[in-house]
Amino acid sequence: MIDQRRLPREQVFVTCGTYQEMADAITTMVIRGAPAIGVAAAMGVALGIQQGADFDTVCSTLAATRPTAVNLFWAIDRMKTLRATLNGASRETIVLRMIEESQQIRLEDIAICKAIGKHGASLVPDGRTVLTHCNAGALATAGYGTALGVIRAAVEAGKKIDVFADETRPFLQGARLTAWELQQDHIPTTLITDNMAGHFLRSGRIGCVVVGADRIAANGDVANKIGTYSVAVLAKENGVPFYVAAPVSTFDLTLESGDQIPIEQRAASEVTEMFGVPVAPENIAVQNPAFDITPSRYVTAIICEHGVARAPFKQSLGALAGGAKKVNA
User: Fold this and answer.
1) Are 162 and 257 in contact (CB under 8 A)?
2) 107 and 239, same structural domain?
3) β-strands 242-245, 206-211 pairing
């Protein structure tokens, strides 16, 4: 995997040979993005089985890495379900099947992202600017991306669009990752600081906002990178559609609302330092929630691999999650 902490200055690849190394890669954000860490967790489980480690320990170690993105737990549960069907099988068979399943999850994720892009491309207005927050692209998935998948699909459909990317403090996923990804695809991109979003939403230049998600509750409340809520409020104030692009594996229909979604708190140093250089007074108190909750009333639509959900989300999300055909990899 690309070490996402070191982009865009250098491209360094990390190889994980044990489940412990995979857990560390997820925790330290070598790899990040809800679908991507789901795939990584599945591969971590397969590595643990290959190592001969205790299965429950492997799963609990990987599950303890990051609390907000539900894809992580979805992938681990899928591996647990498969393992339960293999009781009595030989060790060689178990190892092979677990590796195959983790690879299948990766392939499915790419197909899912392309389906999300196809459903979302029609919502992107031609000749306008798309605003996005954080990174929901190929780096955050197994490939192609969710929010950036919608943008890529719109461009592939011939739409003349450009992108404004919020820098996304404090980890700068927009500045470091989204801007880099879109440059690789030669999609016109302008980087703005987070506190410029309102100015440009008011200007009339922005045709829509497209973001990813880390967990979506049954009522359509969305957990995404910190700052998403502010963008959603500003978008609604200025009459700009606010779209969320995420796979069904990001839906957590066991939760009634976003109030029940756990919010990860990260290290103070991410706020007080910039690439290891202090930018704040020593010993200052810091709050660093990695995510916020955008209430469903600010969400125009949620795009998944099975279609587009609109309010009332409790009905539309349930229908898309439970009644749609599986996307084939």
Assistant:
1) no
2) no
3) parallel
